[in-house]
TrEMBL record:
GO terms for molecular function: methenyltetrahydrofolate cyclohydrolase activity; methylenetetrahydrofolate dehydrogenase (NADP+) activity. GO terms for cellular component: cytosol. This is Bifunctional protein FolD. Residues 139-279 form the Tetrahydrofolate dehydrogenase/cyclohydrolase NAD(P)-binding domain. Pathway: One-carbon metabolism; tetrahydrofolate interconversion.
Length: 280
């Protein structure tokens, strides 16, 4: 038996429709919502995501601007630009793309984004607020995982969830979102002793490492739900997740790559932008 495919496309379309309606309302009030994506990289995956955000923004009627500071931008220049945009009352939402030049830390730079405009939850203040139960935007990717589980009616109350990956953009914020839903959460990572024994206990496995084929059948309990956050480019220009194709034979349901978490991530970023504009 093969697993059910948990598509993200329908949910993404529903989120975009809601955003379009809310955007039209603000535009009619003379308060056009504006999202600015700041980038300082030549990375292909990031460039793809930026184009996708700009296209999706236009489709819902949002103003989506790109500020490209170039792959050799100095940290001071990035921070200064973010602070400037933060102070601009015409800018409601700000997102800083990764990767950043050299050893520049996203968290360090994003500290210059006021948390009310921090629509990808990159400011450490946003993560702290999220962890404390205060209003804050979660990173769109982390929120997309929970939204996709809700959409496909996967219950989280009391469920055992294994999150593989501990990044500040996915693993850590996702752990907080899942705890808020009363899941029992285990966060695993590259140094976890016997990863498979931990993930094979879980009702839900979330793979968010960025390594193709990391999760195989031995990592998954028969009947488990598997959410694949990985987007790894292949040599032939395609895209694969962190979950090996063989897992479909054992799991109850898996998210596809592409067409799973990715489209929901982009749609939720837009929802955060309209929320930020509504509250401004
Ligand atoms: N601060 C920051 N936050 C991010 O969330 C972030 C980032 N920087 N830098 C770049 C990566 C990349 N990323 C993707 C989001 C959606 C898709 C997506 O929707 N992909 C499509 C398919 C794309 C294709 O076919 O090439 C899908 O999964 O269906 C992919 C990649 C977010 N990123």
């Amino acid at each position: 038996m093969s697993a059910t495919v948990l598509s993200g496309k329908e949910l993404a379309a529903a989120v975009r429709a809601d955003v379009a309606e809310r955007t039209a309302r603000l535009v009619a009030e003379g308060r056009p919502p504006r999202l600015v994506v700041v980038t300082a990289t030549d990375d292909d995956a990031s460039a793809w995501y930026v184009r996708s955000i700009v296209r999706a923004s236009a489709n819902v009627g949002l103003v989506g601007d790109v500020v490209d500071l170039g792959a050799d931008a100095a940290p001071e220049a990035i921070s200064a630009r973010l602070a400037e945009l933060g102070a601009d009352p015409g800018v409601h939402a700000i997102m800083l793309q990764t990767p950043l030049p050299g050893s520049t830390a996203l968290e360090e730079m994003a500290s210059s984004i006021p948390f009310e405009k921090d629509v990808d939850g990159a400011n450490p203040l946003s993560l702290g607020r999220l962890a404390s139960g205060l209003p804050a935007f979660a990173p769109a990717t982390a929120e997309a995982v929970v939204a996709l589980l809700d959409h496909h009616r996967v219950g989280l109350e009391g469920a055992e969830v294994a999150v593989v990956g501990r990044s500040n953009v996915v693993g850590k914020p996702l752990a907080h979102l899942l705890l808020d839903r009363n899941a029992t959460v285990t966060v695993c990572h590259s140094r976890s002793k016997d990863l498979a024994s931990v993930t094979a206990r879980a009702d839900v496995v979330v793979a968010a490492v960025g390594r193709a084929g990391l999760i195989t059948t031995e990592h998954v309990r028969p009947g488990a739900i598997v959410i694949d956050v990985g987007t790894n480019p292949t040599a032939d220009g395609g895209l694969v997740g962190d979950v090996d194709a063989s897992v479909a034979a054992r799991a109850r349901a898996v998210t596809p790559v592409p067409g799973g978490v990715g489209p929901v991530t982009t749609a939720l970023l837009l929802r955060h932008a309209i929320e930020a504009a509504e509250h401004s």
